[in-house]
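User: Study the shape:
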Amino acid sequence: MLRIHFGDADLAAVRVAAAPNPFWEIATSLHRFQTRDGRWAYAGWLRTVRVRLREKGLERALRTVLLPLFPRAAYFPDFLTPGRGVGGLAEGLDAILATSPRRVAQEVARLDRMVGAPPWAARLSGLEDRRELVRLLRAYHDVGIAPYAESIRSRFDAERAALGRGFLDGGVGGLLDGVGPSIRWRPPSLQVDFTPPDRELCLDGRGLTLIPTYFCWRTPNSLADPDLPPVLCYPVRRDSAALPPDHRLADEPSAPLTALLGRTRAAALRAAATGATTGEMARAAGVSAASASRHATALRDAGLITSSRHAATVLHTLTPVGASVLRAASNRP
């Protein structure tokens, strides 16, 4: 278990990442290759990505470089999940290249002590070898993450909306208590089901950044170095127990709802279940913002959603009627 200890200043500095961090998505997606836990949920993605890796000639690099550097174990190097990654892939890759050789050497040595590192990993303290690693991370991202960016962002945005509602209803405690079943708020500590060994993390006024992550499955992750800015990578919530059988990651509307409203409008209604802006609704439905706005108007006129404007943003949420329609179509109590 990981226990994260909060002070008063830390409660005021809890935040949710503004965008998915591609490096946590890379790390946790590589974990999906290493365990059968959750394999059924990502079966379509695994099949498709394995074919693409083979076509790109990346299978050997996956097996001999990436998986040994990102073991699904008690530790993998912190410099591989830079905080600057929230600014995008290029910014995060620059951060990896800018990591001091001393820090890289220390983290690789720790990987070797705790899990076992391949002999060549010690050379990553050199810039040329790190450039080759950056090239490989970019190639893997292009195959395994980038094609699913819209679906990943849709679930990320839905998670942020749900956390926002938790905060509005219950303050910071309500937000932290609603992060997920593997994370429990027990003031003044956050208790996290975690890969052994047990750890204690004192925030000491630095706050905590929550990073909802699509490929994270059940067990949250955090940086191992307590001196780095504290983050908690954890699984986004999903509306259903399983993902669709093909390689798409977005949850599909149920057949009855699609028959009633059409696929696009049904997807827009489902997006509103967790609160969605027009842009988020557009990403969930796979349409333009202008088209999403028209669908939102139709749903609002039918009494299924309500919309409220905040500055330049319009937030769409379900009405009681819309929620009843969604529950009935999903055949859930």
Summary: Residues 255-330 form a domain with the Arc Repressor Mutant, subunit A fold (CATH 1.10.10.10).
